[in-house]
From TrEMBL, chain A:
<keyword id="KW-0029">Amino-acid transport</keyword>
<feature type="signal peptide">
    <location>
        <begin position="1"/>
        <end position="36"/>
    </location>
</feature>
<dbReference type="InterPro" id="IPR022478">
    <property type="entry name" value="ABC_transptr_sub-bd_PQQ"/>
</dbReference>
<keyword id="KW-0732">Signal</keyword>
<protein>
    <submittedName>
        <fullName>ABC transporter substrate binding protein (PQQ-dependent alcohol dehydrogenase system)</fullName>
    </submittedName>
</protein>
<dbReference type="InterPro" id="IPR051010">
    <property type="entry name" value="BCAA_transport"/>
</dbReference>
<dbReference type="InterPro" id="IPR028082">
    <property type="entry name" value="Peripla_BP_I"/>
</dbReference>
<dbReference type="InterPro" id="IPR028081">
    <property type="entry name" value="Leu-bd"/>
</dbReference>
<keyword id="KW-0813">Transport</keyword>
UniProtKB/TrEMBL annotation, chain B:
<keyword id="KW-0732">Signal</keyword>
<dbReference type="Pfam" id="PF21783">
    <property type="entry name" value="YNCE"/>
</dbReference>
<feature type="domain" description="YNCE-like beta-propeller">
    <location>
        <begin position="4"/>
        <end position="109"/>
    </location>
</feature>
<dbReference type="InterPro" id="IPR022456">
    <property type="entry name" value="PQQ_b_propeller"/>
</dbReference>
<feature type="signal peptide">
    <location>
        <begin position="1"/>
        <end position="19"/>
    </location>
</feature>
<dbReference type="Pfam" id="PF10282">
    <property type="entry name" value="Lactonase"/>
</dbReference>
<dbReference type="InterPro" id="IPR011964">
    <property type="entry name" value="YVTN_b-propeller_repeat"/>
</dbReference>
<dbReference type="InterPro" id="IPR015943">
    <property type="entry name" value="WD40/YVTN_repeat-like_dom_sf"/>
</dbReference>
<protein>
    <submittedName>
        <fullName>PQQ-dependent catabolism-associated beta-propeller protein</fullName>
    </submittedName>
</protein>
Length: 411, 335
């Protein structure tokens, strides 16, 4: 099961891989003493960054807008870090970035890529699936950094698709673990109108069942037709009125009203979810486990704080770079085998070794519970145990996932 | 002045024999706590620069060097009074360092700008800045003074520096996030801890190849909470003590068989280790619980927990008998 990645890589590598053997062997030779920076052992390993630009609403409360280079800057830093490491082994890496405008054909953009072997994808789930199913993507490793959709780690998983960004299931599990720890287990859920909001709410319901919390009431809220900045004081009393509850959870991924819901609930209850106390892969207050180093490097490069998709972009390129270092090779087939090999672990400034789950290609990782002022807690929360690693208490565990693409004999 | 006369003067200046003292840097409090080696009480606490981490002594025990990371300086401090004598140029964000056997050449890891800075503590001059991997951290100098190493936490390598030419000459990949390195007394082996990899690599210094990777397992503790950081080799060289971070344990490794003999329960998130001069007591800094666990180095039993400041990071025993430093600087000198 775990080794299917390695087997798959060998099989798909085929005769081409054999032809590259000479190059690989040269790269595998140990660094000889007396050389600080060995000459590059082969051509640079090129990683692609492919993004579908998404139109976003204007922020309501003068928040910083989601930056146009979110994700791309993270990947750029990942490239810098990988090259800083690679130079000691004679390895070098390149990054080609391409952004597809809304409405344009992302499949054609993918086909047009000069090198499709490692592609960091920052695009919605529908695009991710469309690309993963292209015949041209059969031998690719696609690294998803933009789509949190749980279904991509479930029935809609794909063999050539790894997920660096946590799924909505992982985010919701992190939050509900925290609520269970605090015994704040009665949740009143307010869901926004967007399709992603419904998926976020569904993830919360699922997590509540998993960890023994209860959704005591649900309401839907659509900010269309009014200006919540003017009406929040009175308007939010209705959707947040309900039976006795400990927290109000909000599912508003686009930030259309959630920030104004804080302190405007009918009862004095904390707000959690997409706003308030929010689970996230990364955020500005994260500083432990030397994260402050990564935050500093990113700010120097991008001139702004690192966001979750930036972290995922950095992590995706860093993972490919580390796999190359581990294999001492820039040969794509060799790197791919190293990346998906059982036992491949990488650091990600989250205090634990990270690795890809063998059953669905998801990067297992801690999830932070953040409000803008601090890291309130880091999940997995103490007391949530798992026989493999506590990290597997977050998101779809092996028996829960309907993903079968990674199991059985390689196709 | 003749050599014997100088020595006599030195002994005279040393005054009455002092009790042993262990110095601990408190990263969050910007202070250093001084623990009495006999009574195991905190004798005094004095303020230092911002975010003190690595600390070490001059060979005669008269100068304490402290990496004040956020002050971008290595401070030279009077260990008796806590008074800062002067700052050494250190490069940006110094985290750990090591003093060469010549007693004056400091190799300093600059965590933020991927360099190792070499400073002459006497002339207070920067001799070189050497490019290494990302987030250099652990530093060690071989007992013969010919080789210095820096570990880089994100590049995951041990970088070998020739101390004569002050150039990085080689790199050995090790496990994820190497944090600390220590040479054996004979200089034949280098021990390097990998925090995220959860391992300790034992490297053959002659070939610069990893000859052994030591793994750890503690019953009831998830493998990813076992995060090796500080390493201290016992005085007789038979054991290596390894601080295992958030598993709250110090491992005792047999250096002949590489088998883990014991796991000693200490405070929360144990960082660094220091032995007293006699090698009988081991001091372990516990970052999260804000204390130091004192361990009997022969029986591997904890003796006492000493409360210090917030986030105790490094520890160093002050040399008891003033030794005279050899003449001249051995590193950075082209023969």
């Amino acid at each position: 099961m775990v080794s299917s990645g390695a087997r798959r890589a060998r099989k798909r590598g085929g005769p081409q891989a054999a032809l590259r053997l000479a190059v690989v062997l040269a790269a595998l030779a140990p660094v000889s003493p007396g050389r600080a920076a060995p000459a590059p052992a082969g051509p640079p390993l090129t990683i692609q960054y492919l993004e579908r630009r998404v139109e976003r609403p204007v922020p309501l409360n003068n928040e910083d807008p989601i930056p146009a280079d979110e994700g791309a800057k993270g990947a750029e830093l990942g490239l810098k870090d990988s090259n800083a490491t690679g130079r000691f082994l004679g390895l070098s890496f390149g990054l080609d970035a391409k952004v597809v405008e809304p409405g344009d054909d992302i499949r054609q953009a993918f086909r047009d890529l000069a090198d499709r072997r490692f592609v960091v994808l920052n695009a919605p789930a529908a695009d991710v699936l469309a690309l993963a199913d292209l015949p041209e993507a059969k031998g690719s490793v696609l690294l998803n950094i933009g789509a949190p959709d749980t279904r991509l780690r479930d029935a809609d998983c794909r063999r050539n698709l790894l997920h660096v960004l946590p799924s909505r299931a992982m985010l919701a599990d992190a939050l509900v673990q925290f609520l269970a720890f605090k015994r704040w287990s009665r949740i009143l859920l307010v869901t926004g109108p967007a399709p992603g909001d419904a998926l976020y709410a569904e993830a919360l319901r699922r997590s509540a069942r998993k960890f023994g919390a209860r959704i005591v009431a649900e309401s839907r809220y659509d900010p269309q037709g009014g200006d919540v900045r003017d009406t929040a004081l009175r308007e939010f009393a209705l959707p947040t009125r309900g039976p006795e509850h400990d927290v109000v959870a909000v599912a508003d991924e686009a930030g259309a009203f959630g920030a104004s819901l804080n302190y405007n609930t009918a009862s004095p209850r904390p707000l959690v979810g997409t706003q308030g106390l929010a689970p996230a892969a990364w955020g500005r207050p994260v500083e432990a486990w030397a994260a402050v180093q990564l935050q500093g490097r990113f700010r120097k490069l991008a001139g702004r704080a690192m966001r979750p998709v930036d972290w995922a972009g950095w992590m995706a390129v860093h993972a490919v770079g580390e796999a190359a270092v581990k294999a001492r090779s820039a040969d794509p087939a060799t790197v791919r085998a190293a990346l998906t090999a059982p036992g491949f672990e990488i650091g990600g400034f989250k205090g634990r070794p990270l690795s890809f789950r063998a059953w669905d290609g998801q990067l297992r990782q801690p999830v932070f519970l953040l409000w803008p002022g601090a890291v309130t807690a880091t999940a997995p929360i103490e007391g949530f145990l798992h026989h493999r690693t506590e990290l597997d208490t977050l998101g779809l565990d092996e028996p829960e996932s309907a993903c079968r693409a990674f199991s059985g004999t390689p196709g | 002045m003749s050599r014997p006369a100088a020595l006599a003067l030195l002994l005279c200046l040393a005054g009455p024999a002092r009790a042993e003292e262990i110095f601990v840097s408190n990263e969050r409090d910007n202070t250093v706590s001084v623990i009495d080696g006999d009574s195991l009480e905190v004798l005094r606490t004095f303020p230092v620069g911002r975010r003190p981490r690595g600390l070490t002594f001059s060979q005669d025990g008269r100068a304490l060097y402290v990496c004040a990371s956020d002050s971008d300086a290595v401070q030279v401090i009077d260990p008796d009074t806590g008074e800062v004598r002067h700052n050494l140029p250190s490069g940006e964000d110094p985290e750990q360092f090591a003093l060469a056997p010549d007693g004056r050449t400091l190799f300093i890891a600059n965590e933020e700008n991927a360099t190792t800075t070499v400073v002459d503590a006497q002339s207070r001059k920067v001799l070189a800045q050497i490019d290494v991997g990302i987030e250099p951290e652990g530093v060690a100098v071989s007992p013969d003074g010919r080789t210095a190493v820096t570990t880089s936490e994100t590049t995951n390598m041990v970088h070998w520096i020739d101390t004569k030419s002050l150039a990085a000459v080689d790199a050995t990949p090790v496990g994820q996030r190497p944090r600390f390195a220590a040479f054996t007394a004979d200089g034949a082996r280098l021990w390097a801890s990998s925090e995220i990899g959860g391992t300790v690599s034992v490297i053959d210094v002659a070939t610069r190849q990893v000859m052994r990777t030591i793994e750890f397992a503690v019953k009831g503790i998830a493998a990813d909470r076992i995060q090796p950081v500080g390493i201290q080799l016992s005085k007789d060289g038979r054991h290596a003590f390894v601080a295992l971070g958030p598993s709250d344990r110090v491992a005792v490794v047999d250096t002949a068989t590489y088998a883990v003999e014991s796991y000693i329960l200490v405070g929360r998130r144990v960082w660094q280790l220091a032995l007293n001069a006699a090698g009988t007591r081991l001091f372990a800094t516990n970052g999260v619980s804000g204390d130091v666990t004192v361990i009997d180095a022969a029986t591997f039993k904890p003796i006492k927990t000493v409360k210090v400041g917030r986030f105790p990071w490094g520890a160093a025993a002050r040399p008891m008998t003033p030794a005279q430093a050899p003449d001249g600087r051995a590193a950075g000198a082209v023969p």
